[in-house]
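Narrative summary of target 7.
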Amino acid sequence: MKAAVLKLKAQKIPTPLEREDQEAYFQWLYFVRYEGMRLWDHAYAIPNGAYRGADRRKAAIQTDYLMRQGLKPGYPDVNVDIPVAPYHGLRIEFKRIGAPKPDADQIAWHDRLRSQGYFVAVCYGLKEAQTITIAYFRLQGAPP
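Modeled conformation, tokenized:
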């Protein structure tokens, strides 16, 4: 009698969406402390690229409404407002792993923020954002 051979088919794990990585990042920030401060308490997201529904007309109306209130295209997704010399705070542009590079609006914002003393990073995925965050809070005045 022949032994039965079990053939397993490898399944590809899908790349997390940008919003999934960002959500996991905020969950992680809840447990990370710097000089006694929980990072989560000093971090917030800017919903510039938020999904506003399938109805294009309603989405355009909502986007216009938000822009009149000050929403600016290209501003980084995540801000952590704790200064670490020589920087005023951390700004992270989240990108899905494999996503294209930042667009012109994003690059312009990154340049403006850097010129004003902010640490700005483009992070492709959760692990990269965590690595950058850890590096930022260990800088203690080291040049970029």
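The chain is about 35% helix and 15% strand.
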